Amino acid sequence: MKQFLLLALFSLIAFSAGAKTVRYELTATKSKVNLSGKREVRFALMLNGSIPAPTLEFTEGDEAEIVLKNEIPDDELSVHWHGILLDPYMDGVPYVNTPPIFPGESFTYKFKVRQNGTYWYHSHTNVQEQKGVYGAIVIHPKEKKIKYEKDLVVVLSDWTDENPSQVLKNLRKDGEYYLFKKGTMRSWWGAYKANSLGNYIYNEWTRMGGMDYSDVGYDAFLINGKVEQQLPDFKPNEKVRIRIINAAASSYFYVSLGDIPMNVISADGVDIKPTLANEFLVGMAETYDVLFEVPANKSFELKATAQDGTGKTSLWIGQGDKVFAPERPKPDLYMKMYMGTVWDTIKYTGSMTKSPMNMSSMDHSKMDMSSMDHSKMDMGSMDHSKMDMSSMDHSKMDMSSMDHSKMDHGSSQIIQTLTVNDLESQTPTNFPSSKPRQNVKLILDGDMERYIWVINGKAINEDRTINIKQNEVIRFTFVNNSMMHHPMHLHGHFFRVINKFGNNSPMKHTLDVAPHSEKTIEFYSDEPGEWMLHCHNLYHLKTGMARVVKYSSFTPNKEIKSWQKHDPHMHDHLYYRGMLEASTNHAQAQLNLLNTWNELELRTELRNDFGWQGEGDAFYKRWLNKYTNLILGGTLIEREGAGVAGVGYILPFLIETHSLIDHKGRLRLDLEKRFQWTQYIYTDAEFTFRQKQPSEFEISLMYQNNWSWSAGLMFTEHSAGIGGQYNF
C-alpha cells in the first residue's frame, strides 16, 4: 500500500513538473470597422485589434493564464470560455460566477486545461458578442491520434451594420421587424405563387404564422472576419483538420465543402465515429471538425449558407480550378406547421412525402437513414427505456482518452444533412443504472410579436435557478413549443445527447433543439458551482430564455454573492414602441411601454367625420401567456370618461381582440386583423363595437417597404382619406 501511495505521489509530482503555463494577454478596445463592405461603423469591439479575436492554443495538461484588459471607455467586459471544463469562478459570466471587468480594469483567468479539441470564447456582457468579442480556442491532445499535417481554424459569424443594442430594442418593438430587410415577408400573393394558400390559411388558423429561421436582418456573414477568403498556402495531398466554429449571434449555417462529402470527425471538441456528410447544420456555439486532403490543381469552396437563405460566406482552400459547393435552395416560407411531427417538406430525395409522422413509433433497425434529410427529423422522441444504460461509469469521464486508432474512415454511407441525430460516440457514454437520477422537463417557448423567450413559461428574471444535487445523473428533456431552433448550452459540463445510437450517444456542450421537437440530454453532476443554461441565440438569451443550474452543495463566495445582487439577468428591462398616423380624415398616436409580462398602452385619436372629434384609451395589460392578457384602464369618447376592465385575446387567424366592460356596465368589443396582400401592400382592419355609444371601424390599404414608414388610403365608416403612418 505504501509503495502504491509513493508511486502515486511521484507520478503527481512528475506530472505537475511537466505541466507548463501558457499565458495570453487580451485587450478590448472600441474601434471603427467596415466588415460588410457597405459602411463603416463605430460600435465594433476588438480583442488585440482584430475581429475575430486571436486564436488561443494550448496542449492538454497546460495551465492557462489569460489576462483580459478592458479599454472600452463606456462599457464593462467579460469573456466566457465556451465548452471548457474549469472552476466556476473562472467561467466568465459576470454577476453569476465571475466579476464584471469595468473600464480601465483587468481580470486574470486561470484554469487547468483538462481536455482537447476545438472550442471558442466570447463575451457574456450585453450584446458584445455580436459587436465582435469572440475567438477560437484550439487544444491539442497530449498524444496525437489522428494523422494530419495542418490545422485550419474557421470562425463563422454574422454581422450587422446596425448597433446590436438597437437591434435588441427593435426586436422588442416587433419580432418581425427585419422581415422587410431580409425580403422574407409572407403574404397572400406569395402563398398563391408558391401554390401554398392552404398552408398559409392553416398556419394563420393555428396562430403560428410560419417558420421563423432567424430574427435579424444581417448585412454580412463572415468566415474569419471576411465575406470571402482565399487560402492558397496549402500544398497538394496535405491532410488538413478544418476546425469549424459557429460564433454567430443568431444564425445557423449549412456548411458544405466543394462537391465532395465531408469526413466529419469531431463535434463540440469531442471526437466521434467518422461520418461522411454532404453538408451539416451547425447551430450557434457548436463546433465541427472535418478532415480534408488538399487536391492538386484545385481550389475547394468551404461554404456556409445562412439557414434563413439571406446570405452566405466562403473560404477557398488550395490553388487551381475552383470547385464550388452546391447552392442551397431557399427555405420554404410557407411550409405547413405541425406540432410535434415531421413536416411534408423533405425535399432532397422525395423519400418522405406524407405527414404527420411520429418518429418514435418507427423501427429504426430496418431503415436506411442515409438518403433522408436529417435536418428536418427529430429523433429525440424515441423510446429509450429499453436502452442498456449500465455498462460503464462515465461519472469522471476523461474527454481526451478516446482511442482514435480504431476509426473507420471507409464507410460508404453518406448523410445528406448531418445533425446531432447522426452523431455516434466512439465509446459508450451511458451511466450506470445504479446512480441516482433527477429528471427535469424544460419547455422552450416564446412570443414573436412581443419578442420574449421563456423556459417553462417564465423568463430568467422570474425563475432563476434549477437546483440539482451532486453526484447524480441529471436528465434534462427539452420540449420546443416554438417555431425557432434553440441551441441550448450548459456551461461547465459535457452532456450526452440521447439519440438513435443509444449507449453510444454523443457528448456535447451545445444542443440544437429544432422547432416543435423534443430532445433529451444527460450529464453527471460532478462540477459543483452555479452554471448558466441558456439558448445561444443571443437575442433569445437577452429576452429571457436562460436559467442558472445550481448545485445544492455549492455556496458562492462573498464576492460573487455581492455581485449576484446586481445581476442584469434578474432585471425586467423596459422597452417601448410607438406609432403616429395622419391622414386627411383621421389622426392617431399610440405609445406602448412593456417588459416581459406588463404593458402600458396609451392611445389617442382624432376623426374628421362630423367635425374633428377626439377619443382615447389608457390600458394596463398583464399578459398571462402569448395569447391572453388582462386589461384595466380608462377610456374617453365624446368627452365622457369611463373606467374599463376586460380581457385581450388573440383568436385563430391572428385576430387581436379586446372584450371590455366599463363602470356603467356597457360592453365594448375591439377586433383587429392585418392582411398582408403582397410583400409591400397590406390592410389593417379595425372594428370597435360599443354598447350605447358609437361603434366604428377603420380599414386601410397601405404601401410599406420598411418597418418604419407606410402610406396609402384610410377609410372609416363615414369617410375616406389619404395619409401615412410612422412606427418608432
Topology (elements, then pairings):
Blueprint: H1 2-18, E1 21-33, E2 41-47, E3 53-59, E4 63-70, E5 80-82, E6 106-112, E7 117-122, H2 128-131, E8 134-140, E9 150-159, H3 164-173, H4 179-182, H5 188-193, H6 197-205, E10 220-223, E11 228-231, E12 239-246, E13 253-257, E14 262-267, E15 270-282, E16 287-293, E17 298-306, E18 312-317, E19 321-323, E20 414-418, E21 437-447, E22 452-455, E23 465-468, E24 473-480, E25 486-490, E26 495-497, E27 507-508, E28 510-513, E29 518-524, E30 530-535, H7 538-541, E31 546-551, H8 558-564, E32 575-583, E33 586-594, E34 598-608, E35 612-623, E36 628-637, E37 640-651, E38 655-662, E39 667-676, E40 681-690, E41 696-703, E42 709-716, E43 720-727
Parallel strand pairs: 1-4, 3-8, 9-12, 11-18, 15-20, 17-19, 21-24, 23-31
Antiparallel strand pairs: 1-2, 4-6, 5-7, 7-8, 9-10, 12-16, 13-15, 13-17, 14-15, 14-16, 17-18, 21-22, 24-29, 25-28, 25-30, 26-27, 26-29, 30-31, 32-33, 32-43, 33-34, 34-35, 35-36, 36-37, 37-38, 38-39, 39-40, 40-41, 41-42, 42-43
Account of the 3D structure:
The protein has 728 residues and is mainly beta. Among the domains are: 19-143, Cupredoxins -  blue copper proteins (Immunoglobulin-like), CATH 2.60.40.420; 425-556, Immunoglobulin-like, CATH 2.60.40; 575-727, Porin (Beta Barrel), CATH 2.40.160. It contains 8 helices and 43 strands. A hairpin with a 3-residue loop joins strand 37 and strand 38. The protein is globular, with a radius of gyration of 28 Å.
